Amino acid sequence: MSSADRAAFSQEKIVLTIAAAMFVAFSLLLDGFFTAGNIVSLVQNVSILGVLGVGMALTIIGRGIDLSMVANMAISVAWVLFLANGGTPLPLAILCGLAFCLTVGLLNGILIAYLEIPAIFATLAMGTAVYGFGQSMLIEGDVIFVPRTEAWFKAIGGSTIMGIPSPVIWFAAIGAAVAALLGFTRPGRFIFGMGDNPLAARITGVPMRPMMVAQYVASSLIAFAAGVFTATLVDSMNTRVAASTLIYDVILVAVIGGIGLSGGKGGVRNVVVGTLLIGTLLNGMTIMDVPYTVQNIVKSLILLVAIVTDSILNPRDEQTSQQGDI
Amino acid sequence: MTALIETRSISKAYRGVPAVNQVSFTLERGEIHALLGENGAGKSTLTKMMAGVVQPTGGELLVDGRAVTYANPAEALRDGIVMVFQETSLVPSMTVAQNLYLGDESFFNRLRGLYIAAQQFLQSLNFNVDPWATVATLGAAKKQMVEIARAVRQNARVIIFDEPTASLTPEEKHHFFALIRRLTARGVSIVFISHALEEALQISDRITILRDGEHVSTDLAANFSRERIIREMVGRDLTGALYSRSRARLPGKPALDVRNLSMGQAVRNNSFTVYSGQVTGVFGLIGSGRTETAKIVAGILKRDFFHGGEVRIGADPVRYRVPRAAILDGVCYVTEDRKLEGFFETMSIAENLQMGELTARSHSGFVLRMAEMQTLADEWRNRLAIRSGDADARVIELSGGNQQKVVIAKSLVQKPSVIIFDEPTRGVDVGAIAEIHALINRLADDGLAVMVISSYLPEILNLSDRILVSQRGRIVEEFSPETATQENIMYAAVH
Questions:
Q1: Is residue A316 part of a domain?
Q2: pLDDT per residue over A5-40, tens digit each?
Q3: Which of A30, B47, B246, B441 has the greatest number of beta carbons closer than 10 A?
Q4: Residue A231 φ/ψ, nearest 5 degrees
């Protein structure tokens, strides 16, 4: 974090500036952008993406990545709904789903920490396996609806508190919790240490393997939470989301805000910044009626602009990387 | 006759901080010129400016009396100036011949012709390297020969070496010196940066000393003595602190007992004991299994599963699977390669030390105490005289000596009872060497069992209360400081 703080214009600040500029431009140019209703829906639309981004950030900072998050979220929550629709009491169904998603996280962690499989392959395989297993063994059909009887369950993601939709509040709460974990606790420092220099972390005595397992269990838990918010917000869980490009958007919001894929850099703040940018962009383009395919091009361009600007303003040549040798 | 390279009041500043300040330097044709100075004195930066790797922010660079500005190393190469870095720039998976001609191949590349040309060229230099050998299979010395051959093939008139002998054994060093002598006979000029003062005195024609980015002196090597070099490098007299030996401490209880330890070909049936309250020095050439032995003890590597031998800490046999287990038992290993596995480069000094504290056996609790982190950092910065602007300075920005101090402090924070230093002063400037040696002595006085691994004989002789000599995977000799001389230690290490 200290390195990002030192740079005059870090990627985080560049992205925040782009987001703010875009927000102002949309407010001035687009009818109906700067209205209370639209702002609320803007934030609500991306808050679940943000929650997933926070979980992803946790693994990326520790020099890992969790590509199974979306599949895990879709299948575990769809199974909860499927069980509940089939007559299982909802609390018991939730426990089953929770147990399923935590098992997936645990398996991810064991594959990566103890069998030493690169995180990208382990979680890619796990995501595909979870999707296939869920589709064939656990549930029937693609879209599972939320049971109509349980009002308290629907309130998790479908209510508003003082005009603020609950997913936004959940995003804030989960973001704050993870930020506190990263910044103010021992495991948080260990995650940064492992991401910065795994060899040094090991020699220094960081419990590497338990920490890695804990990371993937945590990202699974966050994925489950995000799934519950999604299902209760839109009254259903579409398992086809596991085969969509959502997982890339999750990585996008983490990386665009300045969390380096090489690990050890960034924090929840970067995810929030990335999420705001993507939210503003998508909302503005939707109002302008830009086709979905073109939206993808714009998203990718913004990511490239942010990364290129960062590498121009904060060069990582031998001047900065070898400062110790001058 | 004009000098081959001349710098006139050349300067380089990084973000306003001068690394080289108005240095004037000349390189004559066919001479070997050593550049000496502490880490951070500006040696690397000065040579990098000559080779076009970095661009000066002030002053003039003249080659053959003509002012030049190099935008990149390729432009310097056109004038025959090549820099050979510490990290080799060869492609490991290619053969020697392919590496020699890399970038110059014709479109239809005939391998046979390439090998014949490479063979003839290497023979003309009298270099004994097989052009068919894959670079990855070569030792450090042979790799260096290939690098030199490549530079010569590119019509280099000036070859700049940055610590060329750091990874060579004494035998290879002699060979290397003979090689560069042969090059100067062909009219090539050599600039070399080194920390080894004896080498500079032995091989170079002239010596230039830099301190804090400024030129101190340039003179014929014959006019220098090691005392004069040290004095001019650090600006104060350190000779006493560096080379006097305190009287030997008596052994306390055995703290670490290694019996018949084995790991593949690297460690073979190794046995020795380290006692608390004294410094046990382990001397050996690179590849003699010293580092591997230490890493097995500290749980970083694993010994053979069958007939792997035994490690006892105090009286208890232990088999650590991870370094954490060793640290919880009070066994710490301070690495020889601080950049690779020593410190956390994006973190500040305080955060690095905090990592040590969080992993210490005494630590409990979940939530961090930020105020304690600051006190801890201030305390250790004072105790080890870590020089930096503040405790928030990132470790990567410090000089080698200060980085090493941070790595040592990170281990000391863990309050070990057995501490193993592996090459504690490699790439560390002379001033910091004295401070680190004083610290190691203090630790032994405080009752810790200290083991120091080094391939630098004066260091071993200066620090050790007992001297063990390692050769081909095992300890072969033990000396007391009274009986040890450079000659008999070296004899034991190579025979």
A1: no
A2: 445 567 788 888 888 998 999 999 888 888 888 888
A3: B47
A4: -60, -45
ipTM above 0.90, yes or no: no
Which residue do the tokens 């530079």 mark? B151
One-letter-per-residue 3-state SS of B279-301: EEEEEECCCCCHHHHHHHHCCCC
Of B14, B343, B360, the CB nearest to A326: B14
Percentage of chain B beyond pLDDT 90 is 32
Q: Is residue A267 part of a domain?
A: yes
Measured between beta carbons, the chain A residues lying within 8 angstroms of B348 are: 2
Q: What is the pLDDT of residues B49-61, one digit of tens each?
A: 999 888 898 899 9
Task: Report the residue from A196, A203, A325 with minimal CB separation from B346.
Answer: A196
Kindly report, residue by residue over B220-237, the tens digit of the pLDDT: 988 988 888 877 877 755
For B327, which of A199, A205, A323 is closest by C-beta distance? A205
Cβ of A324 within 8 Å of Cβ of B399? The answer is: yes
Name the one residue in this structure whose structure tokens are 């020969």: B145
Overall pTM > 0.95: no
Q: Which domains does chain B have, with CATH numbers?
A: 5-237 (3.40.50.300), 243-494 (3.40.50.300)
Question: What's the domain range around A61?
Answer: 2-311
Structure tokens that stand for B316 in this block: 């208890």
Nearest to B341 among A190, A203, A322 (CB): A203
Closest-approach residue (CA) in chain A for B427: A325
How far apart, in whole angstroms, are the C-alpha atoms of residue B253 and residue B277? 8
What are the φ and ψ backbone dihedral angles of A248, each rounded to 5 degrees? -70, -35
Looking at residue B331, its amino acid is V
Nearest CA in chain B to A265: B346
Residue of chain B whose alpha carbon sits nearest to that of A189: B355
On chain A, the residues whose CB falls within 8 A of the CB of B300 are: 202-203
B273-331 pLDDT tens trace? 999 999 999 998 777 889 999 999 999 999 988 888 999 998 899 999 999 999 999 99
- The count of structural domains within chain A is 1
Question: Pick from A266, A248, A250: which is nearest to A258 by CA?
Answer: A266
CATH number of residue A153's parent domain: 1.10.3470
Residues of chain B found within 8 Å of residue A113, distances taken between Cβ atoms: none
Q: Return the residue in B355, B367, B411 with the most chain A beta carbons within 10 A, the one to mutate for interface testing.
A: B355
